[in-house]
Amino acid sequence: MSVLIRFFKALWDLVIGWAAEVLxxxxxxxxxxxxxxxxxxxxxxxxxxxxxEKEQQIKDLSAQVVKVRADWKADADRLQADVETRxxxxxxxxxxxxAEAEKLESLKAESAAALQTLAGKIxxxxxxxxxxxxxxxxxxxxxxxxxELLDSACPALKGY
Length: 160
Description:
The chain is 91% helix and 0% strand. The protein is mainly α.
């Protein structure tokens, strides 16, 4: 452990010593090159810091772009699934409606046939009733007398 502490102390002394020598060298007057080197070093430091800041901004924006793309893809997939589900439901509804329309057509045909049959039966019944009414009106006098006798015997059954 003490070896490690001695190593860091020696490294620190080296860095501080080097910085002190540079400051002494820069304090000596008379060299235009020193001024140019100082200005150039300051410019390089500012440019480096600026480049580092821009790089961090680019990394942040790149991460945002990746996130937006992933979100967009997830939304697109979800919407596509919703459209496919809706299309499937619409197809099911259309099939059910077609089946109901076929049932309705068959029921309509059955109803028309039943109506026609019923109309025929009504017509036959009316014809039979008119035939019976005609025969009833032409009944013989003995039949009329028997019915009148029946009417007097059973007043509850009167009028047939």
